[in-house]
Design goal:
58% of the residues lie in helices and 8% in strands. The protein has 5 helices and 2 strands.
Length: 125
Amino acid sequence: MPDDAGLTVDSWRQTNSGLLNALSKQTVSNNLIRSFVIIIVALGISSVLVVSVVQKQREIGILRAMGTGRRRIMTVFLLQGGLGLGLAVVKKIVTIHGGEVVAHSAGPGQGSTLTVRLPLAPSAG
């Protein structure tokens, strides 16, 4: 601009450097907070899954003893969300194979007995 106009030109970046600096720091802090939240959520989900697997260890053992493959157990477990993998799933699998499941308990605090009856496989001869 010509000097006789009496105008001066300043860079917007220089004039508002404080604002730009603050926005930059805010972005860094937002990313840091977001990272912490993601880590906390991941740890929370992991702990829930570990607790769920430990609680369902007996049911998984029953399914393994019945010859169910690990991949099939994992599929059932994931479809159920790690919850509800109890007697109903065992009963369904046993019923598909022509067997029956009977549960008995003498009362609260007395434990339970789970009886699985499967038919013998027909002989090959």
